[in-house]
Structures
1.
Amino acid sequence: MNGVETIHKTIVSKKDERIYTISGSDEGNAGVSNVAFDDNSLDYEGQSFLNLKKTRAMTLAWNNIDVYTIPRGGTCCNRENNTREHILKNVNGFVKPGSLVAIMGASGAGKTTLMNVLTNRTGNTVTVSGLVTLNGRVVGEEISSISAYIQQDDVFIPTLTVKEQLMFRALLRMDKSYTKEMRLERIEEVLTELNLKKCQDTLIGDVRIRGISGGERKRLSFASEILTDPPIIFLDEPTSGLDSFLARNLVATLKNLTSRGRTIIATIHQPSSEVFSMFDNLILLAEGEVAFMGATKEALNHFQLCGLTCPTNYNPADFYLDKLSLIPGQEEDCTNRIQLICDTYSKSESCSLINSSIKDINDTGYNSPSQENVGNLGKRYKATVYEQFLIVLWRSWLTIIRDPASLKIRGVQTIMVAIIFGLIYLRQEINQQGVMNINGFLFIVVTNLSFSSQFVVINIFPMELPVFQREYDSKLYSVGIYFLCKTLADIPFHILFPLIFMSIDYWMVGLNDDVGAFFISCGIVILVSNIAASFGYMVSCLARSTTAALALAPPLMIPLLIFGGFFVNTESVPVYFIWLKYLSWFKYATEMLAIDQWTGVTNITCSAPPCVYNGDQVLNKFSFKKENFMLDLWLLIVLLVSFRILAYVFLVIRTKRCSRNCC
């Protein structure tokens, strides 16, 4: 239009081995050549260029990769199995900057294993030999600092909006050199690039909360990872669960990202012919061996050399997978065909060229700043401890106040149960019958708050752990920061709801009318609620799932309830169970509430002996002692701290085990 056309040019700087992509408008292509590099910066002349982006050029190579399973020891029913399964067999390859690469193969071919090797996520379930290099330098865990790994399942906090999710990632993942304005600018850029602007203020949602669509969730996964503009992006079956239209748009977006110098490697399952044609290069795996590696359009020629011709108007991707799969009942023929394809590739000129290129890369490398940067990316966290604390606490707070199950339902439940209890125990008189009813009410209060506080945690906390595990593996924050922020964000609600409950029931039941006694009882039930929540955190971190935690909690809690001093007199506890009563917060809390209620009560009416005539006799009847009040308080605090510490220890163990096993 009017002689103005959009220009996209990629320039490789010999100075620092970076790829610079220039885009903008220019009249008659004048000014394209007016780009100059100096030692410290990228200078350009001509005001017509609208955008200048730079991405580090990274060549990823892998050489002689062999992966074996680790034999598991035998059990009482099974003998020890010393055989090792050979998952990947001498796999070699490399990927140049600016490439969109597909890894394909039948089920069990080794696609995911190869991806895990390249991203250093194999865990301790297999043994790996061989080298993975970036620009000729061997890399291990530090590859996560220079790459993005987008897994198949999209895991998010459902109560955040799309923009808040990206802000959270930007604050924790982007380098300290980025100012807040630069981070916001980068977020806007990514939202536009991945077509997420229209849903930026929409909650992400889940099965309980209505949110964004499946395609938008998938693009949000990409957006979360490319905020830092990583030169290498790994994807595990990005089109799974998407229809053909969304899959095509998604791969087109990936193709656009490679035009700016990024390298994208994706495992993909049964792509359409249109989607398949968008990939620049193809890696085919079969039975752990490389069946083909090279330009996508050259794969048909390779199969023709093996005597296998793709029918006209047939999807090449389906054809390749069909010829590389084991068909039941034809295993021998299929194995021979697969071996022929793999042997033909291993003896081909393209395979020799690839192996030669890998050797050159690993022998010489790039003596450039970008190579030096590879070795300086080992720092685990980009944000400081204080920054991690503020950001994770902000998200934890939003998660709670936006979740209807945490506030509305729990608030209504608290008020309804309090009113029901208040009506059942309404206006108790200080007589022999009233003594029994009031003591029963005090124990019921402790029991109700214990179970409700515990199960609120157990029903919600385990659902967040997959998100936490993925973010921890991405090196966003530490285990301690997450656990501290999560528990701190919960504390106000473990204060508010017990306070509401006690404020309703205390006066309905007609407990000690002293204002000081009321506030003491409120403090006791608040402490009980937080102890039960701590116990819930401990059980949640100990169990593998919400279902397991719900099954585990009652058997652990019932013995503590029995030895709480109401069902069994604490003085008659069998010696072999004596230790249980010291772990029971029911015992300490009930004793403190009873002391608070009956202290100062000097006249209890009696209609038919035997009777108790004052508060001291009531306490003696239940083996409660006034002098134990402060001891009970300190023991409750000890239990609170101990359960939290145990929960943290279990969470650390669980997190480390999952990181090792890639769960």
2.
Amino acid sequence: MGPKAKKSGSKKKKITKAEQLKQLQEEEEKRLREAEEARLKFEKELERLEKQRIEKEKWQQLEKKDLERRPEELEELYSLEECFPEAEKLKQDSRSLSQQASTLADLDNGNMEKIIQDENVTLYVWANLKKNPRYKSVRFSNTKTGFEIPRILATSDIALRLLHTHYDHVTPLPSAPAQSPSPTPRPLSAGSQLCKGEAESTADADGPEDQADSKPRERGSVFIQEEERKVDEQGDPEVQMASVEKEAKAAEGDLEMKLLSEMVAAAQLDLIKNAPEKPEVSESKEVDLCQFTILGGVYHLDILELPPQCKPVKGWMMVEILKEGLQKFAYPPEITEDFETENAFPPVEVTLQIQEKVTFFEEPVVARWDAEGKYWRTDGISDVYYSSEDRLVSFKLETFGPVTLMQDTHINMPYQSWELRPLGMNKALLTVTTVFTEIQIQIKENLCVLASIKVKDKEHGSVLEGKWMAPVPFIIALKETGLNIFPTVYSHFYVAINNKVPLVEMKAYQQMALLSSAFAFGWSKWNTLCNSTNVVFKVRETLTEEHPIDIPNWALFMFSGDRAWRLKINEESESFSEALGEETEFHSTLYHMVKDAASKEAVEKVRSSSCQFVDSVCYMLLSTRVLSYS
């Protein structure tokens, strides 16, 4: 019998040593991988917790900081938000006054009138309680403000409300005029031109021989110094680095000043540029706000339906409260078929008392607001009467709504003459004389003040006298009172001017401002006869505020922006001539032109002038544009 066959599946396959090692290695790698993943997960969790902790601390710090400054911020916000309750208070006052009209009735005529006034708002309310057809004249006590109402209103349950806001919050803000980009390089500032001119004049002062001798010596000394510095720097790296940093800072400072000078010059040039196109007015009755200026604020005129009045009931005062509040009384009504006569709804005559701070040189233009078109218009207003002595204006109004008074923006342009005179160190007086008035503006350091105003050769009081302000708010304040001697970019469309090239005009103002501590400048009739590339004005040295006898006569100077010279003619000459004055020369700047005949004291004053003073004088000259608008 042969041997038994082996069973194939009875015994497991034997694992080799290599396979065992490989299996152990894989298990170890798996263990290490899991351990690494667990470590990374733990680190991420720690990182998340740390980030969360930092964010929480940061949040807590921000909350703490917010809580610390919260009272200050809320206080400031509350002060700004006071305008809302003030406006609502006026509305409630109108409503409550109308409802309590019967208890506030005047003993003489039986109707109610009330005036509520604060710094910027005045409210007038009149209630028609008696409905007496013969009582058609309404005048508020202690004022001349009032109405002349027709019979139909005198017999109706109405109340008249006049809310005078001393500012204009109705007119939309004007859009800035479009300006085409200029490819021409920007001019140097006045200071840069002055320094450049000083360097040129110093070089010219040296003789040719001196210059020739000095150049080799200068070149030799510079060469020796540079060689010595190079040897020192090569031996000391710290000195070399410090030198490089110093040069870099100097270059950065020079670049910054250059860019600042270009920016200032561009801004000054924009002040005297003229807009290329006149703004369009869509409607024939629309007021052109580039030609006219609102003065004295806005008068909101309303006719209201008289609400139910208070009634005494068993010791109580009962009043019906209407949910919709005060309702406007339609006058004239939309439907007039029931009325036979055509003139059943005549216009209402309104009399307004003009504010003391506002000056009208002519009869004001009365305009009403078109709520639909969003502009002021002059139709629907008739029989305008103006009394300058009583400061009253009356007119007839067909429909009620916001009304305002306007004056020609350019009523004081062109000027008849002007003068800029020193009053001492860093002080000057700018006088502008127009057809109606003479305005004197004192400039001191970086502030301006209205020194004097004359109307028809008589002193005229103003609320701005004695109030020092920075140039920009000062100009705004003068405009708001009607003393407007500041042209806009559109003014040349409305005024016949002696237009000058803007760059020439700007350079003249800059250099006149630089000299204004020691030299006076004035209007010349010959400025209108020279071409647009030149300006002519009077100049003389003035070191004291007084006018002593030994002050020299005015000299006539012509300036083209890059050349200045003294003219041979004077103001009394029979004809104009550009001929050069005797014993004088051409100069590149106005400063060097006046320096030829100036005293040492005058030159020292010019050099010691405050930069803020020079800038303020320049800004006022740029804003008045006396060389183009005289």
3.
Amino acid sequence: MNRKKLKILLSLFAFNSIYLYFFSSSDHHLFIHHKLLPGNHKASPANPKTPPGKHPHFPITPRAKPWPILPSYLPWSLNPTVALRSCEGYFGNGFTRRIGLRRSSVERESGISGGGGWFRCWHSGTLQSSVCEGGRVRMTPERIQMSIGGERLENVIGRKEEEELPEFEAGAFEVDAGERFGDQRKLVDEEFLNRFVPQGAISRHTMRGLLDSIRLVGSSEFKCDQAPLEETWKALFSSLKYAKNFSGSVCFRHAVLVPLGYETALFKGLSENINCHGAFAHDLWQNPDDLKTARLSEFGEMIRAAFGFPVGRHRVLKPASGHNILFVRREDYVAHPRHGGKVESRLSNEQEVFDSLKNWASNYLECKINLVDGLFAHMPMKEQVRAIQDASVIIGAHGAGLTHIISARPKTVILEIISSLYRRPHFALISQWKGLEYHAINLDGSYADPRVVIDQLNSIVKSLGC
């Protein structure tokens, strides 16, 4: 499992994440920050055909990705009084304060003067960030400076992170301000940015830079060169194209700009205590609790549904034949270029541990144990998701593959083997927020004693009644 998939899946489960996506005139999607878009096309329970946040002037065409009604789905609240630092504030729709910057088409159709496009932001007091959206937005890729991507790894060893992040020049994005609009001017000022998109601890805040680049232009200047707009992408969404792949300006009927990954609960959980615990959605529907959340489990259901697997709280919690213990394997890989390009190993004797577990499982007499070899780097994504959802126990070294636990069934037990060089709480936090039982084996280095691992598994399978 490589670093690229870690970026994909860590970002996936966090609804308020690093994404920037666009609805074009053909309802295709575009990514600016090299990331995929969030799954906010789920239909509303009140109206299965109307996605939350849909603007009536920009209907979603049949070509957009259809989403099933998930049995556990909790509605997104538009209540502006979502409790600060509550679980819903962190993981649900905490973006409840609306800041209008340009009038919407509905207002214009109601007789309010204006014309052209529209723009507004929704602010979260919990995450201290904003989601923004606009209509009739134009992007000029030539005004966005960023690495081209796709280079050979050995050619970019030592590249700094700031060299990979996009830098937006004035007018990189523009909003149609109508026929009566004269000279260009900025959409937002410094006061707005400091209040609703604060710099925080981020060295380069690309969302803030993008908003700062937006200019208002008259309709006569709003000309477009283009209007048209990977396995997991297509499973979750309709289609995509990266900003760097365009030449010439591109116009979008509906653009949604979503905060950086550094502003999500997962990142904030590294430095602050987010006292949230996973729960069943149907329980929270009846008894709301600010200290419980079902949002991560719902997102796991979305991933399973995207690949055609059954979802919902009525699924059998135990495999029909014994228990599957999934060993999520890793392969040594060249680290990200800015880490110096060295080969990294999180578990130096992984094969020894796996062989010992295989021998243990084949001789376990209390019940049938199926040890699954999770070589995810060589498995299609659908088979990876299948292996996760069929597992009673998931074991693996700290790394990308364990991000899949977002799709694990209720009652799945997680056992993480943690090298002394990678003592990071990502998967402990995901397990807590999903309501999964979590255990860790902390190593002095990167070598794991197979006997210690087997003893821990013995204890776990006995707790499963086996």
4.
Amino acid sequence: MAESKLLNRLSEDFLECQICLQPYRRPKVLSCLHSFCQQCLVDFLKKQKVKTELDCPTCRSKTLLPGGGVAELKDNFFVESLKDTIEFHKKLTNEGESLVCGSCETKSGAESFCTECGDFLCDECVAIHRRIKVTKGHQVIGVEQLKAESDTVRIKPRPLPPCRIHSQETLKLFCIDCSEAICQLCTVLSHKDHKYEYFADTAVKAKEDIRDLLAKTEKKMVDLKNADQQAHAQKTELEKNVTETVENIKRKAEQTRKELVALVNQQEAELLDCVNTVSQTRTKEFYIAIEEIETATVALESAAEFGRNIVEHGSEYDIMTVSAEVNGRLKKLLDVEFSYITEMLPAKTNIAFEQDETTDMAKPRLGEVWTTEAHLDKRIYLGSPKKELEPFVGVTGENFKPYRSYANNQEFESMRLNENLSQFGDDCKVTIRLGRDLRKGEYRVKLYQLMVNDPEPCKFLLDWVVAKGMTVLQSKEDLLPQLRDQCGLDIPLDRCRLRKKTWKSPGTIFLDWQVYEDDIPVFRNWEVFLQVLEEPEAMVSMQQIAVFVRRWFPTEYKLGPFKEIIIEGQNVEELKEMIAEVSGLPAERVQFAKGRGAFPCDVSLLEIHTDLEWDPSVQALNTWPLYICDDGSVLFYRDSEETLAALSDDQRRDLQRKENTRLNKTGSRISYSPRKERALKIYTDNSKSTDKRS
């Protein structure tokens, strides 16, 4: 017999203490939702210096201990009650163990099960059970039927625990004011005039709250996994750059070694040592960042699993006992920001070798490792080093701007003279550009044009300035003359759209009435998309969602152009109707799938028909696997009556070759960069200055 679905859904260690690795004995739940045996926590606390709070042995989160210590922590009644259900399912799935009657002393073979009493019964006890007035109304199910339907049969839960104040009364009610379980007597004594409800009533709302948070954890998990993948990819890029740098150094050293071996070897060793030092330092930083991301992932997975299990398998009492802790823990983990971890990672991949092209054999010089060129005290303000550079640049410090440079030619401006250099990381390269400094409340924005149907949909236009308190409409009126003068773009005001840019992907559309910083968060070195519309702007409300759709023609093995649709609601039926409107297909024949990756979500024509998740069984757009919660999502659609054309081997090979070229799967991928200027490099010759003094 196949193992119970319930046993499959629960992890193996959910009912085991992770300290003693044994089944729970008087389990206590911490604020992070991890549970441990009471005695295990007492022993664990003895090893800590601080006795007023407890560090979770699993995730290191701190739990403030109540006055009575570990014993006063909340009991995990949910785990205790779940034990009976697990034992019940194990008995059913164990082929080698025969079921015996739990009602009579003969221990005859059990043929039925009473869901009310929770006992297996022999045929004779079943007959008696149905004759006795107290039990004749109980639901009795045959064992074979029970095995077939074990996951749908609800077994009577454990009796509710007694009140700790009135031991003769059971806990049936939940006090809303005090957020604790109470008995009937409590309502007229210690909780008089308080608002209270039965568990069955208040647990419904608690379940919905937890389910809402669980839906958000799914998206948070996706973000964490993406961050983890990005950190690993950037670490790989660092290792690749280190390898290429070492190879370039060795190759240049081999060319020069014939004439001055000793000096060349000395410089080679110094350069390689520099590369190794940078590599070791930055690799350690990547390991730390990855560990923090993984720790956050484990904590979120663990809390989500607890919340999911308590909602799916817990009784109303179980849910209300820990609902506050579940909500608090999930909200706390959802509020954790990890952007600060990955923000500086791109800069850490930046290492290269710059060869020296001089031919002075008296003092050979291979080149230099391109990481840093100056040592500055981070406590000084930006105006000080800018003042020193004025003679070399030829203008005052207010009229040139330093930019921090990252991998892939990404540059971010250091903005104001009254800022100190704490924002500059080690091994940071700086580029100098002409232009005025920003005033208070101003932000410099990199503006890119979004051209959804062009081979290169992202084109850099210009640097632009927005100010705090400015509306989007005012910023458009300020921007359009600059676009006309500098880029030759004459755009009508009602055809100009600004929207969020996340790497190469278009995001939230900014509405004319929105205010920068009040309605739209503004960041340093912000990047924004400009989209030229064919018709006047139709986005007027935050309730609308703009989606890009693209038709797939399986009989022709081709994709149509992108089109944009604007959805008023959050349901799939409206989405299909909007696709039908722009495509001419009947809505019932529209099948769709969400694109993967960054815009434009390129996918091989040989894989799109089978690899994407077509026509997902969901009703709302904001549920898995769609998760369409913001503007800019990409959807592919097709006609359900159009079949996939059969290809010969030659046709398939020819199409595969074209697709490899289109998707850059062969050869070097060309990365786009908006940079047009050459960096200004300043060298000082110490030997000449020494001669001058002498």
